[in-house]
Amino acid sequence: MNASRLFGTALQYAFLGLAAFLSIFPFFWMLISASNTSIDIIGGKTSFGDAFATNVTNFFTQVDVPLVFWNSTKVAVLATVLTIVVSSLAGYGFEMFKSKARERVYSLVLLTLMIPFGALMIPLFMMMAKTGLINTHIAIMLPTIASAFIIFYFRQSTKAFPTELRDAAKVDGLKEWQIFFYIYMPVMRSTYAAAFVIVFMTNWNNYLWPLIVLQSNETKTITLVVSSLASAYYPDYGVVMIGTILATLPTLFVFFVMQRQFVQGMLGSVK
C-alpha cells in the first residue's frame, strides 16, 4: 500500500511539474529572446544575450508607449466595468425574478454563445460605420458589454446567494436596486473579482475586432502595436519580445493581485 501510494504521489508530482514547465517555458523563452538580437533568435539561441537594453531603447523609440498603454488601459477598464455591471444585473434578474418566459429568454441568451464572432464582424462593422463610431474606442467596447458567458456566470453564482437576505431587506423597506447595490454586490464580491479578472484579460488581449475598427495609430492598443511590429518586412524579434513582455505584465499583475478572490469566485460559481 505504501509503495503504491508513493508511486501515485510521485506520478502526480511529475505530471504537475511537467504542466508547470510547459506553462512557464513560453515566458522564460520570451525573456531570453528579449535579450538577444533577431539573428540570435532565428538561430535558436537558448541563453541570455546582451541586447536587452538595445531592444528596450528601440521599442520606446518606435512606439509611443504612454499613448498605447493609455489606449489599452482605457478600453480594458471601461469595457470591463460596463460588462460586469450589465451582466451582473442580467444574471441577478434571471435568477431572482420568475416568469413564464424567463427560461426561454435565458436559453436564447445562451444560444448566442454558439454564434462565431466571424459571423458578426460585417454586421457590427456596418452598424459602427452608420453611427460614425469607426476608429473610436467606443466601437470596441459596445459589442462586449452584454456578455452571454458572464451573464451565465453571474446567474450560476446568484443561486448561492441567500434569498433570506433579500426577503429581510424587502421587509425593511429596501427597493430592488438598493438590495442589488447594498446587499447583493458586497456579498458576491468574490464573484465580481473573478469576473473582473476574466473580462479584463479578455478585453486587454482583444485583437481581431480592434484590428478591424481602429484605423489610426493614435487609437491603437498594445496588441495591435505588437502585431504590427511582428508583421514588418524586416521584423526585429527582440523588439517584438519586449513589446510582448510589456503587454503581458498588466494581466499578470491583475491576476496575481486578485488570485485569491478569483479562486473563491470560481468555486462559488460551481456550488
From TrEMBL:
Belongs to the binding-protein-dependent transport system permease family. The keyword DNA-binding does not apply. It comes from Shinella curvata. It comes from the Bacteria. The chain crosses the membrane at residues 12-32, 75-94, 106-128, 134-154, 179-201, 237-258. It is found in: Cell membrane. InterPro entries: MetI-like, MetI-like_sf. Residues 69-258 form the ABC transmembrane type-1 domain. This is Carbohydrate ABC transporter permease. It is a multi-pass membrane protein. Pfam families: BPD_transp_1 (PF00528). Keywords: Cell membrane, Membrane, Transmembrane, Transmembrane helix, Transport. The keyword Ion transport does not apply. Gene3D superfamilies: MetI-like.
